[in-house]
Amino acid sequence: MIPLSLALHNFLSYGPRVPVLDFTQFKVACLTGGNGHGKSALLDAIPYALWGEARKSQHERRPDEGLLRLGAAEMRVEFCFALDEDRFRVIRSFRKGRRQGMTQLELQVFDPAGNTYKTLSENASLVRTQERIDQLLCMNYDTFINSAFILQGRADEFTQKGARQRKEILADLLGLSRY
Fold first, then answer.
1. Average pLDDT over residues 122-126
2. Can you give the pTM of this predicted structure?
3. Theoretical Cys-Cys bridge with 110: which of 49, 87, 91, 159, CB 3.0 to 4.6 Å?
């Protein structure tokens, strides 16, 4: 997976009118700045778009409402990436409700013939669309944070797992299920 762009709307410290981050303009990046300036928020946005997971407090089941910008009623993260010869876009949005919020997820593939994105989401099913993303990326959130992405304050995530969980993660990474 090669990141292409990231668009945020009311995600953590980022408000409603944030310029799109275009990853194609650089090969390597270094995020610097003071505490609370949004460096980690940019990194949290990618796994949130792909898996609906990012930082959350211990008492939260889902991170959505905790990632919503203070005072906002809805947020949206749009992440575009290249994989093999295709270009994909994942859009995850959350709208705060009276009792509970509503999350929407859209997976799209770029159609060069029409210069547009076509949906790969299945009947607006969050679960089936998430399964399709996991299948496409050949990993789930747990595999991602234990192999390619170190969560802030949780660099020992993999070593804290039990032997069975570590074996499962390594088997997923190495694609051992093929054999």
1. 81
2. 0.80
3. 87
